[in-house]
Write a structure and sequence with these properties.
2 strands; two-stranded antiparallel ribbon; 68 residues
């Protein structure tokens, strides 16, 4: 069976995609830890369409919210 190599999502080097690589899809434990640190520090985010100051504001109206 052919050995499959994938690109490491952190550094871009080739990484072995096989049970012999305990850090897959990363090439090393270092790249895996760097990626985990980015998640822990909220470096990975999905941008919303509203500005950050508008998100969750008290003046937002929702259709299911009873009138005050």
């Amino acid at each position: 069976m052919a050995v499959r190599k994938v690109r490491c999502p952190q550094c871009g080097d080739d990484a072995l995609w096989a049970p012999e690589n305990p850090w897959r899809p990363f090439c090393s434990e270092r790249c895996k830890q760097i990626d985990l640190g980015c998640w822990a520090s909220d470096s990975y985010r999905i941008a919303n369409k509203a500005g950050d100051d508008e998100a969750g504001g008290a003046d937002l109206e929702f259709p299911d919210t009873p009138a005050r």
